Amino acid sequence: MSEPVSLFDKFYGCIAGVHIGSAMGAPVEGWDYDRIDAQYGILEELLPYEHFHNGWVREAGTTEDGVERQKLMISAIMEKQDRVTAEDVRNMWISGIKPESAGMISEPFEAVLLAMAKSGIPARDIGKYCDYAGLNSFSRSCHPIGLINAGDIPNAIHDVNEVGQLYQTTNGRGLKWATVTAVAIASGTKAGATVDSVLGAIFDHCDPDVVVRELERELKRTAKIKDYREFRHTLYESYNIRGIPYEVSYANEVVTKAVCIFKWAKGNVKEAMVAAVNMGRDTDCVTAVAAGISGALTGTTTIPESWIKQTDYATTLHVVTNSQRTIKEHAEGLYQAYRSRLHRLKAYSELMGAL
Structure pTM? Predict the structure, then answer.
């Protein structure tokens, strides 16, 4: 019998899965899987890459825009030492985003959202003005919302729909798919959690028509596949749209693939990461979700230490990042905030339970 995974290691595994997976998937983002196969065979290392054609060749292990969104959420949670609102995260946008990041690390539409954030309109109205309501902007970065609500699925869902309004409209498809990420993490952190219990929590708590129906379809189609090459081909049959803005980055595709990989890899973070990186299309985002969910269940035991060190090293060179904390420092900050939240809940329970 394997040793139980500590709650802190679940936090650490989740954040490590996101950051390393994002960095590993970034060099082949947008590629079809046959192009990855032709150039690398199986890609399972961190590589340098260039994005946005701006001449910045990024050190192997450099993370991208989705992790920058996540870092701001983590910073807001660390500052508050508790669950956060859209206003809390908006304030962190204003104080934490470096002006020079526009065109270097963030997506163009994020500059518009930041300008609106500075205008003083209510934070929960900002997402109404994003043209891309169905994207994975939040679903691939909302892991800290699941972690600060570890074991607390209803509040994880509530906070996705609160904080997510910075990026997308209330009850929009993007946020419905983001609840999958947060529910999976909140449930995976529970003592005794399993792959099946995480999937059960998703089915029990997420939208039955928008989310569960699509997940069930693709989980059924991939249920008996053992080889990842056949696995990715089967998913490509369902998800191959081209010719529209952000064609590979819609939340239903990214999250469905990630959940299927999580099940296929049985929560093994390294195996989930490598499978997702070689899936093609939005490789960094699929990997961030698949590896993040897996890490929240199984921790860091399958993640090579060299991958953590290289990603941390790349962060020291990342001059436009919103935070140069190490992966472990991000996890420690989140974990401390979670412990502070528990302490307040315990004190409240003792106070009111004595009456």
Answer: 0.96
